[in-house]
Amino acid sequence: AQRVTQPEKLLSVFKGAPVELKCNYSYSGSPELFWYVQYSRQRLQLLLRHISRESIKGFTADLNKGETSFHLKKPFAQEEDSAMYYCALRQGGSEKLVFGKGTKLTVNP
Amino acid sequence: DTGVSQNPRHKITKRGQNVTFRCDPISEHNRLYWYRQTLGQGPEFLTYFQNEAQLEKSRLLSDRFSAERPKGSFSTLEIQRTEQGDSAMYLCASSLVQGWAFFGQGTRLTVV
Predict the structure, then answer these.
(1) Under a CB-based contact definition with an 8 Å cutoff, are residues B97 and B28 in contact?
(2) Picking from A73-77, B68-72, B101-105, which range would have the lowest pLDDT averaged per residue?
(3) Which helix (H) or strand (E) holds B26?
C-alpha cells in the first residue's frame, strides 16, 4: 500500500535561513506527488505539484525516484512561510490523495 | 467567497444520533472528494464523485457512512448512529484537475 512519511512533526528555522521539509513515500508505481499548505486559520491549499516543476513562493521540490523522496526546499525562509505543510501522493488510476501527517514549520524573526 | 463551502462548520451530537454535512463545490468542478482529518494526522480519503457518480470509496467508509451528490453539484455526507471515534474534521474538496484539490474549511464533528 502506498504511504507518505514526513519524519519531522515540527521544524523551526530563523528568517533568511534555508529550509527543507522532508517527504518520503512508498509506492511501487509512478506516483504523482504534491505539497499542500495550511496557513493559520485558512483552508488547505495546493502549493506545488511535481509534474509542474515550478517554483511557488520560492519553494521547489524535486521528485527523487531512487530515494523515493519529494523534499520541499526554500533557500531563504520568510516569517509568512510559517504553516502546516503536507506531502501527498496520488497513484495512477485513482483519484485518492494519500497524505503524510504533516510538518509544522515555524520561521522565527 | 467562491471557494468550496461546507455547512455546518461545527456540529456537536450525542452518540447514536445521525448527522448530515453539506458541501457546495466550486461550480465548474466535476470532481468532488470527502476526507476526514483527526488531530495530528493528515487528511484521510473517504470517497470521490465524478459528477453524480460515486467512483471511489475508502474502506474507512463503513456502512454507517453514506455520501451522495444527486445532481452532480452539492454533496452530502451522512453518518448514522455516530460513535465517539467519528469525532474529526470532515473536509470536502473539489477539482477539475487530478490531484489539484480545492478544499473547504471543513465541518468539525464532536460526538459526546
Answers:
(1) no
(2) B68-72
(3) none
